[in-house]
Specification:
Elements (H helix, E strand, L loop, with lengths): L2 H12 L10 H11 L5 H9 L13 E3 L6 E2 H5 L11 H4 L6 E7 L4 E6 L10 E5 L2 E6 L2 H10 L12
Antiparallel strand pairs: 1-3, 2-3, 3-4, 4-5, 5-6
Length: 163
C-alpha cells in the first residue's frame, strides 16, 4: 500500500466512514479486460487496498468514492442521467469520453470525478471534475488528486474557473 492510500484509509477510518475491502486481483483484471485499459499504479493500489466506500457512506464533505463495480466510463455512467444537473450531453463535449471513468461523486451526483484510463501505462491519468455538461481538469494524476483531497478536500468541491 502506498503512503497516500494509507493516509486516506486512516483518515476515513478516523471519521467513521465504512470502507469496502480491497478489490480482488480477478476483479481488477476483469475491469482492465472489459475496457481494454491498464490501471495506473496509484489507482490500482487504491482499488486493491480500499475499493471505495460502502454503499450509503460519504466523507464529511459528502464525497462518496465508489467500489470498482460502480466505476464506469463517462458514457455508460452519465449520459442517461438527465436530471439536475443534466449529464446527458457530457459525452458530446468531452474529448475521448470513453477513456474517462467516473469513480466518485459529491452530494448525490451534484458533480462527479473521473479519471482518464488508457491501454498503456506511463501516460498521464488526469482527473476531471464534471458537473452536467461542464468539466475541468483538477489533477494530473490520481496521486495528485488524493494529495489535494487529503490536504484540503474542500478545494476539490468547486474548482476555480479560469476564463
Amino acid at each position: 500500500m502506498n503512503l497516500l492510500t494509507e493516509r486516506l484509509r486512516n483518515y476515513w477510518s478516523s471519521t467513521g466512514v465504512n470502507l469496502c475491502s480491497g478489490a480482488s486481483r480477478q476483479a481488477l483484471k476483469s475491469f482492465e479486460s472489459t475496457y481494454g485499459i491498464r490501471l495506473p499504479e496509484d489507482f490500482h493500489d487504491f482499488i486493491s487496498t480500499i475499493d471505495g466506500m460502502e454503499d450509503g457512506y460519504s466523507d464529511n464533505n459528502m464525497v462518496s468514492f465508489w467500489p470498482i463495480d460502480g466505476i464506469k466510463s463517462v458514457p455508460e455512467k452519465l449520459i442517461t442521467f438527465a436530471g439536475i444537473p443534466d449529464y446527458s450531453r457530457i459525452a458530446n463535449r468531452l474529448r475521448e469520453p470513453d477513456s474517462y471513468f467516473v469513480f466518485a461523486d459529491f452530494l448525490i451526483w451534484s458533480h462527479v470525478y473521473a479519471i482518464k484510463l488508457r491501454s498503456k501505462l506511463g501516460e498521464k491519468n488526469q482527473v476531471l471534475w464534471i458537473c452536467g455538461s461542464e468539466y475541468r481538469k483538477i489533477a494530473e494524476s490520481f496521486s495528485d488528486f488524493l494529495q489535494m483531497y487529503l490536504d484540503d478536500p474542500e478545494s476539490l468541491l468547486i474548482p476555480v474557473l479560469s476564463y
